[in-house]
């Protein structure tokens, strides 16, 4: 089977966008449009999600990281800026741990270092039981509504629900097991690349203690809190989300030039 399907646009340094649970490359359309004037933006679909729904899902976060790295190897991408959202932020942390020299800048968005997600809106075991009883489409409709302050009435909810419904059931179930078994806290001190942590202050999936652990343990870290946004801040407040990323990338680039 060939490598993961992906979206790609632009030229320049590579900028890799990794989606989260029940997500897909399509969720990054605005980001691809915004950053492709100066970056080679690459958004893979994780196995079992989006355009990769025909692939078996991974039951470990490391397996997902390996799949994305294999795609980048196939594309000849040796170093890159890396952004991961939610479960994709766990994948990004694993990628940075496995190939620290390849990750020029790291952006961890709406995520944390512990896959069990303490104080999440519901335990992962509950999500797993509901997935088995209700199916993928009902699960993304229910869980996706918690990603927005306005719930299912939010402007971006229909996008999330449509993309998430494409996931295959095996991948959705495997990913819950993968998250439950993952703990990246021990590697944080070794992720020395410049890092931006972005968090919506109404995020019900990753609470403040998760974000604080990233902020206080990553060696070279900046924290940006988006007020009035939940777990899908890139859809709720895209202009602010983009400006935070642009500020971070321009800041670290200016610092590198000064050296």
Model description:
The protein is of the alpha/beta class. It has one domain: Alpha/Beta hydrolase fold, catalytic domain (Rossmann fold, 3-Layer(aba) Sandwich). Helices cover 42% and strands 15% of the residues. The protein is built from ten helices and seven strands. It has helices spanning 29-35, 61-74, 87-98, 124-134, 136-145, 157-164, 169-180, 208-217, 233-236, 238-258; strands at residues 6-9, 14-18, 40-44, 80-85, 103-109, 195-200, 221-226. It has a seven-stranded mixed sheet with strand order 1-3-2-4-5-6-7, sandwiched between helices. Strand 4 (80-85), helix 3 and strand 5 (103-109) form a beta-alpha-beta unit. The mean pLDDT is 96.
Low-confidence stretches: none
Find the CATH topology.
Rossmann fold
Distance between the termini: 44 Å
- Order of strands, main sheet, comes to 1-3-2-4-5-6-7
Helical stretch count?
Answer: 10
Q: What is the level 1 CATH name?
A: Alpha Beta
CATH superfamily: Alpha/Beta hydrolase fold, catalytic domain
- SSE order, one letter for each helix or strand: EEHEHEHEHHHHEHEHH
Helix content percent band? 40-55%
What amount of the residues lies in strands? 15-25%
Calculate Rg over CA atoms.
17 Å
Mean pLDDT: 96
Structural class: alpha/beta
The second-level CATH architecture is 3-Layer(aba) Sandwich
In this structure, how is the largest beta sheet organized? 7 strands, mixed
Q: What is the approximate shape?
A: globular
The tally of strands reads: 7
Number of domains: 1
